[in-house]
Amino acid sequence: MKNVERGEILSLSEYELVRPHFRARVLAEKRPRRVTIGDFLCAMFENHDTVLLQIQEMLRTERITSESGIAHEIETYNDLIPGRDELSFTLFVEIPDRETRER
Description:
This protein is an alpha+beta fold. About 50% of the residues lie in helices and about 15% in strands. Helix 1 (about 10-30) packs across helix 2 (about 50-60).
């Protein structure tokens, strides 16, 4: 699967213009890629678009604009993209009840 490249990353202002549509499309794409495991675990099988969304959202949230910061996010999140004959997922631990979570 193709890694995210620097040329795909939009500036913060460009991303704000397309964010609602892009985010809605990728979130819809994520639904069938999400697998619940028991009561508290969930696996999200990653692909190019799910990682691209994560990178754009991190840049937006953290207000990262420097080339070194952008390169760091790309490098970090590209590790989630599976290679040939591989699967990759992010494991989420989801415990909504605060008392249970703190135990």
